[in-house]
Amino acid sequence: MSTEVDASGVEAPDRSAGISAPGTSVPGTSVPGTSVPGTFAPGISAPGISAPGTFAPLREQLRSAATTFAGGPDAVAEILTGIVDDVDRALGEDLEIFPVCHHSPAAALAMARRLREKQPAVIYLELCEDLRPLLEELRNCRLPVAVQAFASELDGFPAAWAPLNIVAPISEASAEYQAIAYALDTPGVELVLVDRSADHVFQWTPTESSDPAADAGPESADTDAAPDDPGGQPAEEAALHGEAVGIGMGDLRPRFAELRSYLLHHGKVRHWSEWWDQYVEQPLADADYDTYRQVMVLIGSLFRRLRPPADSGRDDRDEDRERYMWTRMRQHMAASGVDRSRCLYVCGAFHAASPVEEFGTAPGTPDWEISPRTGTRWLYGLIPSSHSAIERQFDLAPGSVSIAQAGWAKAVGRGGVTPYQLVGQPAGRKRGRAKKQAAAPAAPAPVADRLSGFLSRPPVLDEVDEAELLAWCVDIVRLARRNGYLASTADAIAIFETSILLAGIRNRARPTPYDFSDAAVTCIEKDVVPGRRDVRRLCDILLGGDRIGQVGYDALPPLARDVFDRLAPLGLALEARTIQRALLDLTAHPEQVPCSDLLWVLHRLLPDGVVRPIMGERRLGERSIQESWDLGLGRHQRAVIELGYEGITVEQVLEKRLRRSVWAPDATAAGALAAVEDAILFLPSRRFVDELGGRAVDLLSAERTVDDAPEVLRRIRRLLAHYRNTEPELPAWCQSFVTTGYAHYCTLLPTAFVDDETGVRQVGAMLGFLFSMESLALSLGCDRAQLELAVRQSHPEAPAKVALLWAAQSQLGLLSVAQLRSRCAELLTNPLVVPAFPHYLSGFVQALEPVPSLAPFVVEVISEAFARLPDPVLLPWLPKLITTLREQAPELVPLLVREAGRTFPAGLAALDAWVPPWSPDATGPASAVPDAGAGGLPVSASGPLVGLLRDHPATCDAVAELLGCDTGWQSAGSPAAGARSSEAALLLHTHPMTASAVADLLADLLAEPAGSR
Fold first, then answer.
1. Which of 255, 275, 614, 860 is the most exposed place for a label (fewest CB within 10 A)?
2. Region Disordered: start and end of each range (predicted)?
3. Residues 621 and 475 grouped into a single domain
4. DSSP-derived 3-state class of residue 874
5. 179 and 152, same structural domain?
6. In this structure, are residues 431 and 415 in contact, taking their beta carbons and an 8 Å threshold?
7. Does 798 fall in a domain?
8. Residues 305, 355: contact at Cβ < 8 Å?
9. What are the pLDDT digits (tens) for 733-781?
């Protein structure tokens, strides 16, 4: 609520919206929520300012008001008069200071007017000084975009901070863009960025901070965060800046939560953005330049002086920034010799009211010592931005930047000011062209007191723009119906009347977009949201929408341009923000094969959803002949651009990432094997693959735990199968990995069996590696006795690991199946062990990984458990068994199911007469289990192995002669032949290398032509 003061000093209420000194309540000065709630920290003295001067009447008026209200002079009077001193000091500086606020249309309008009037020769801009070269590329972009500084390899900063990322968003409705466009398109005008560099932003961050983005500067403070709601901006558009530190100008929000709450409550608004638009933006949009300047400095001074003591750390950084900027400006003036009267200093209103000693350009002003930059290598580029991303970065209310953009467009459409726009920018037709620079600037006019009149006069009454409000009401009803709401013409009339009613309740002569949005929510939205967007989000779309910028091709880094060039054969509009569907027939169109290779690399590097395969896959030994892709490169430009900070091509980036992953301090052998697999799939470099493989060997030998044993086993099996199918021999690193892993796991096996922190899955994977790689390891020089000693030295106590040990002993021939069956029967008959028997079963199931030949026995044990375990023990265990198999060993379930299908009858009719093959009552060749040999393993008198031995007896004769057996061959039906066949089967099963070598040799001989044998 604004107030009008008559001659007697009595405040008379007025329903119109005006602006006063925010946070004060003095005669002739008022704004909603203006009384200062208590006494704050002492004010900051403004050196060099004497009481007599331009603002002496206003200063005396504020002092008298503070004395009257507080009962005597105190800190309140010092604060109020100090604000006037700050304004007097800022306006008395020879270098003209232009105070601005974040993405403020009023500031942009004032900047455009002032630039055409003053025609400055040098513009000093509050922006990171090392971002200057990027500004030339803005003409190739569609706003809003953000200039970015990025560093992934740190030198001088904690490694935990990596990567460091800074963005400075630039929108069309901003004073900084107007200054940039004027300076870049006007001959003879120099644009100088004077704020701390990106390196200094993090230099000034406390090194003990775990989140540098939260402490890097005032722009990153979360002071007005709006709560998330279902109708908020889509996360994809609001996250265009990621976790970068936002750099901007003019963060004008009171940092005193009590003051801010007071202003919002008495201003009858929901959030700070609405308060600012109502009581600052609208009154200043049409104000003259001197009034705008004085009011903005006054607001910045007020909020600066009302900071709580807890902000002392940020106060120091703010003052250091001001010392930095004034030092840089004086250095530039001394080097260039430019006249101060022809310069313009554009900074946030918060920094315009600066109390530092280094303030000003007068002779003798001390400089501030600027520390050198660290050795960190910074990379720079442009990334797309959006209104929602700016709102999220600077904690503005959802829709506030879109409303500001709509206000800017309306103000420009009314005429009276021609904004600047960079030549060649694809945003549309250039609205205005900079005038030719004046030969000599006019003498600066003396500073006049505009504050007293502006703060004391009643606000100008605005009439209701019925045409605009009616258009809003009709359009929101139409938009709501498209999104599933049951809205009608009656709702449009209700929204119109409610908007005027709400504006009247809030003491506004004219409904604002915020009043209209509240009215639409009240009249249209009911209990549920029928679609994806609620009414408040629809209002944001109607009032301007979320404009999303785009970086032009010429402004992209080399990697991004290379990506678009290499995907050109697809014939798609990859720069569009819509999802593009790419169909590749690699057989009919071989020229698309390079595109397919590039898409798979991008799929590996970029976040999910940017490049998404619909049909086709790429795995070791597999290549698709047709592929289908959904491409969102235009929508996710930021992800592609940031790849350009890591290399020139995507292949180089992938190679750097793989090399960095295997040499990281937390690298593992499993991760190195994954890197080897990716290198084989995506990078045609055998040398690089061998380098990664050698690193995997080193990592495996250095590991002291076996947590990744299942992953190691899975990946090395896949790689060995790939090389056996594609290469004449295994690479040297593969052979070294097998031998190193065999010795490594043999050494750790006894400890893993007894270690409580090592799971059954890990021990089973170790045994799987040892048994499945045994033949290859022995052929490469390993000793089998090492494995036998490791198994004999293992003495586990956990039931599941005991079962694993029994399975390993059976594989080595140290324990027969009959002995295993006997031990399990003893466990089931022991009432003390029965509750723990499910754990033994879990161990036997996990044993299928190292000893898959035990599948019939595991089916037998599970069947016996189901038949003999009591329900209180069995039923609680069944869900645990299922979840364990699904999480840890899903590949073992098909093996068990197939074996059970071979064991159990196929129909219900045969179930009643079915006798388990392991039962003593089982008879007949169809149901009987084959006899066990001396080693306890089933043998058979028929089959391909027996046929091979009969057809080629020379090998068996040589082995028999070596072993000293001279019995000779027996007939198939004799008992001795059965015993001999059992012994031979046991021998072949225990030592399969001989039979495998003979089979390979015979296969090669049979493949040769008859004449060459």
1. 614
2. 1-43, 205-236
3. no
4. helix
5. yes
6. no
7. no
8. no
9. 999 999 999 999 999 999 999 998 898 889 999 999 999 999 999 999 9
Locate 547 and state its tokens.
Answer: 């404009």
Q: Kindly report the CA angle at 25 between 22 and 27, in degrees rounded to 5?
A: 120
* The two structure tokens encoding residue 904: 């159990």
Residue 981, pLDDT above cutoff 60:
no
pLDDT for 250 beyond 60: no
- pLDDT for 127 beyond 80: yes
DSSP bridge pairs for 619: 622
State residue 430's pLDDT score. Answer: 46
Q: Is 280 found in the same domain as 141?
A: yes
Tokens representing residue 523 in the block: 């009249």
| 892 pLDDT tier (thresholds 50, 70, 90) | confident
Chain centre to alpha carbon of residue 351? 33
CA-CA distance, 179 to 111, in Å (whole number)?
7
DSSP-derived letter for residue 37 is -
Integer Cα distance of 92 and 673 in angstroms: 69
More confident residue, 453 or 686: 686
What's the pLDDT score for residue 311?
58
Cα gap 492→158, rounded to integer Å: 58
Q: In what order do the strands lie in the sheet with 122-128?
A: 96-100, 343-348, 122-128, 190-195
Contact 448, 53 (CB under 8 A): no
Residues 523 and 568 in one domain: no
Q: In residues, how long is the chain?
A: 1013
Do 308 and 368 lie in one domain? The reply is yes
Instruction: Give backbone dihedrals phi and psi of 379, rounded to 5 degrees, phi first.
Output: -115, 145
Contacts of residue 981, Cβ cutoff 8 Å, sequence gap at least 6: 939, 941, 946
Over residues 280-291, the mean pLDDT reads 81
pLDDT at 914 (0 to 100) = 80
* CA 735 – CA 425 distance, rounded (Å): 60
For 511-550, what is each residue's pLDDT tens digit?
A: 888 888 889 998 988 777 887 788 888 887 787 667 788 8
Q: Which two tokens stand for residue 647?
A: 């290399």
DSSP states along 441-505: PPPPPPP---HHHHHHSPPPPPPP-HHHHHHHHHHHHHHHHHTT----HHHHHHHHHHHHHHHHH
pLDDT band with cut points at 50, 70 and 90 for residue 930: very low
Q: Are 984 and 949 in contact (CB under 8 A)?
A: yes
60-71: per-residue pLDDT in tens?
A: 665 565 555 444
Helix, strand and coil percent figures for the chain, each rounded to 5: 55, 10, 40
Residues 6+ apart with CB under 8 A from 625: 585, 586, 587
Percent of the chain with pLDDT over 70: 74
The answer to whether position 779 is within a domain reads no
286, with CB counted inside 10 A (0-12, 13-18, 19+), is middle
* Sequence-ordered alpha helix ranges (H) in 817-970: 817-829, 837-846, 855-868, 871-888, 892-903, 944-951, 954-963
As a whole number of angstroms, the distance between CA 62 and CA 55 comes to 11
> Which residues have C-beta within 8 Å of that of residue 971, sequence separation ≥ 6?
977
d(CA 594, CA 592): 6
Structural domain count, the chain: 4
Residue 869's SS3 state is: coil
- 215 and 334 share one domain: yes
CB-based contacts of 975, cutoff 8 Å, min separation 6: none
Q: Which residue has the higher pLDDT, 904 or 474?
A: 474
Please give the pLDDT value at position 222.
36
**Whole-number Å distance between alpha carbons of 919 and 74:** 101
- In a shared domain, residues 377 and 489: no
Pairing of strands 626-631, 580-585: antiparallel
Here the tokens at position 961 are 């002669």
Mean pLDDT for all residues in the chain: 77
Q: Which domain holds residue 959?
A: 944-1012
Joined together, the tokens standing for residue 730 give 């295994």
Alpha carbon 884 to its chain centroid, in Å, reads 32
CA–CA dist 815, 935 (Å, integer): 7
